[in-house]
Amino acid sequence: MKSGRGILDVGLSLLGVAVIVLGLAACSKGSTVVDEPDQSTTVCQPQLRRCNGSALEVCSLDGSGWEVLETCVYGCAFNTAPARCYALCPPGHKLCYQERLVTCNPAGDEWLVEQCPNGCNEEGNPPACFVSCAPGSKVCDGDFLKTCNEQGNGLEQPATCGNGCNADKQPNDCYALCRPGTTRCFGTAILETCNADGDKFDRQTCDTGCNSGVSPHACYTDCRPGATRCKDDKTLQTCNSEGNGWNDSPCSEGCNGTLDPPACQVCKPKSKKCDGKELKTCLDSGIGYESTGCNIGCNALSDPPSCYGTCTPFERRCSGNVLQECDQTGNSWGTIDDCSPYTCDSQRLECQGCAPNEKRCKNGNLEQCKSDGSQFDPLADCGSKGCDEQNLACYAVCKPGKVCNGDVLEVCNSAGTEKTSETCTYGCDANNGVCYPELTLTVGGDVFVFENQAASIGANATGGDGTYSYLWKPARGLSDPKIANPSANPSETTTYRVTVTDGQGNSLTKRVTVVKYNRRVDLQEWDEVYLKTPNNTTDPDLPVWLQPDSDPETPSFERTVTGKTHGAILVSPFVLKNVIVTGRFVVSGTTDDDYLGFVFGYQNEHQFYAFDWKKTSQSYSECGGYGNNGMRLKLFDSDAPIVDCAAFWKSDVSTLADVDILVPAGTTPKAWANDVTYRFELRYKPAEIQVTIYQEDQMVPPSLLELRVLNSTDATFDEGRIGLYTYSQEKVKFFDVTINPLP
Prior knowledge:
Helix content: under 10%
Strand content: 35-45%
Radius of gyration: 47 Å
Distance between the termini: 72 Å
Oligomer: single chain
């Protein structure tokens, strides 16, 4: 509790009346602090003070009587010598002020302030802080919404949230409409997805239709069930009921892909056959026949069948106001044009002018024939909407077809009455009216070569707009960093990043490592992994891996870890087996005494081998108990992330299901030393693991003192990534890591 005299000065002005009343009650009426003087001579002892209710009185100089010295606003302190007025407030008085509880101190001259995290209960007698929660506040508990009771000491009245409870909202509340991420089909072509706030559904158009028969609802992956297309000129394909594939059907007369929808033809276009006295001709679409009457009859023996001849093939004539042409068989006349109300010119064999007020589409605009039929004049400029040839009017909204508007593909329906749009993630192909496909990037595997050999590395991009540029970093050791497949000959083990960018600005990045045997490894591209377990709460901050230079063109052969409490791994981007790995480490400038080492066979953060070395034995209750000093070899093999820090700290892991000690801590040596450089050597192949630790002597030239050899035949992981490791240990520098093949 803190002093709050200045904080409450303004507040007290509002509480003056209440304080005066309380002050009047604080002193017992007529009390005094000394014995009365001799009543035979004086009424009181001169200059003696006493409390009389809320009044502070003083005895006159001649002792003849009591005089009021001061009316005490906050009460009179009768139990002090001399008696006095309380300076600021009645002792022990409590009140709520701006979510804080303030209490007058015993001397009445200072307000003591206590912060109320859950609010202050001013209705209490006396006022007090709410114990566990703010009355009326709401808290999510799974799919239930609970309310803090009036006393602020518990949650009650749980309400079931049908769509789930939103713990991210302040105050907590039930999702209003739907559970975030749930989907549903709206009609046959729209998929709705509940947004992150759970208060509305976002829509997306399914080009191939929406599948409400699966859970969750989703767009059909390949096609709309029942849709058709021509695979070739003899095969019709129909989308299956799941929308994920096509079924073939043979078309004996050919497949017509221009139909809507595409369908098998029932006849070959323009083929002919006789049907009694009628000559039937297959339509251009191949889906049926049209009939022509033969005056004399139909000749089924001709090839092709035809009406018996009545005219010269393709001969024209005027029959009244109708322009006719003899068909190619010479068997009948066909109408080319009805020239009414104008005449058919028998000399030139064509219709004259145009029909009055006739409309037509020309060059995308609407024209109308003059009333005298002499010519067409412009009627309407349809602009970008275009002219509807069938209905002879400007399209209402848009011109049928597909067009790119930036990265948005706009699709107008065949009637020109509705336009839909789709945002193209990878850009819009204006030439073909489609979205560009997803940009993908594949790279070759990591390459292992001897120190004087060059390696071929490569990347291949697909999708996007098909125009690609490549950039490899770092550029050192590359024949050309701006091509897809450069030759690489770095002087050290180097991890390269390749970024591909297409003409739309879309880009992807992947990594590939050139491992140079017997050369130092550039640690700059190694990945940082942290082993933070829920029950290790001593320090909320994670360790930090430092490096001397962040320039990608400058290799980093050393990395230093700072920060304590949690585990940290710096893991390679490449996978190793049948290798010898060496490296050096040193601890400097610290009094810390915990674990350091390295990992190998790394699959993920809960499946790997680890060599660790603790300096001093000690107990750590948060992590399960005692951790012995010394070197050991461990196996972590868990199907899920490790949640108990005892797996990394505790020496006795017999109660832990997914951790095994392959080689326990030995008797020599037990402790590593500050400012001493150690060298490790790992020999790693399936079912054969050997770790050797050396101490470097600072002689010239330096010599190595073998400290311990740890062997294991465990075969759980026959290959994996390698990493540098600490647990609860700071200021460890790892450097000069090299890789060589096993002989």
